[in-house]
User: Fold HNH endonuclease from Streptomyces katsurahamanus.
Amino acid sequence: MPLALSTPAQAAVPAPPVRTTPDAAPAPEPGTAPVSRPVAPAAPAAAPAVAAETAPIGVAVSRLAVTTEDRTGYDRDKFRHWNTGLDPADGCNTRAEVLIAEAVEAPAIGPRCALTGGSWWSYYDEQTITSAGTLDIDHMVPLAEAWDSGASAWTAARREAYANDQGQASSLVAVTARSNRSKSDQDPAEWLPPAESALCRYVSEWTATKLRWDLTVDENEQDRLFLLAAGCTGTTVTWETAP
Assistant:
C-alpha cells in the first residue's frame, strides 16, 4: 500500500555541541609516583550488513560466470550435512529445522525433534504431503553441481555451510522424495520440475543460489536458463551473498 506523504514540521535548529575537556589529574604529592589513568579500549567496528540484491531474471542469469564444469575428486561426504542447524540447543538438525520452517501446517515437535502431523506443499510436483518422513530436503543446486561450479576449491567448513544453508530460503527446499530423486544432481539443462507452474520459481531460485555462493554455470546450463527466463516476464531474482 503506498505510503501517505505528510509535510514535516520545521525542524528545530540543534544547539552546537558542547566541547568538554577531561579533568586534569591531581598533582602527585612529593615523593610519590604519578597515578596513571587506564584508557578504555575502543569498541570494535561492527561488520557491515550485506544487503540483498534483486534483479530481473534475465539480468540475474547474465551475471553468472560461464566455465567448463569438472567433477574430478567429488565425494558427497565432503559436504557435511545435516548438522545441528541454526540452534544447536533445540535438538533439531538442519533437515528438521527446514521442515518446521516450510510447513504449511505446523507439525508437533516431540523428544529429539521427532515431527508428527503437519503438512507441506511440494511445489516441484504440486503435491500436499502430510508425513515429514516422505519428504526430502533438496539442495536447490545439488552438492555435485556445486562441486563442479566452484565448491571444489572451498574449505571443508565452507562446504558444510553450503550444505546446511538456511540464510536464504531458496537454498534448501522440502519436496517429495520422488521429485528430488528424479532431479538427482542434474542442472536445468537436464532436469526441470514436472509442474509447469513451478518453472519460473525454480529458475529464479536456482539462479539466486548460484549468485549467493558465487557458483558458475556451463554453456548448456546458461542457454537453458536464458531460454526459460524469456518465458518468465516479470519474475525477479533476489539473493544475498553468503558470508
Summary: The first helix runs from residue 57 to 62. The beta strands are 53-56, 108-109, 115-116, 120-122, 127-129, 135-139, 172-176, 236-239. Residues 1-41 have pLDDT under 50 and may be disordered. The radius of gyration is 26 Å.
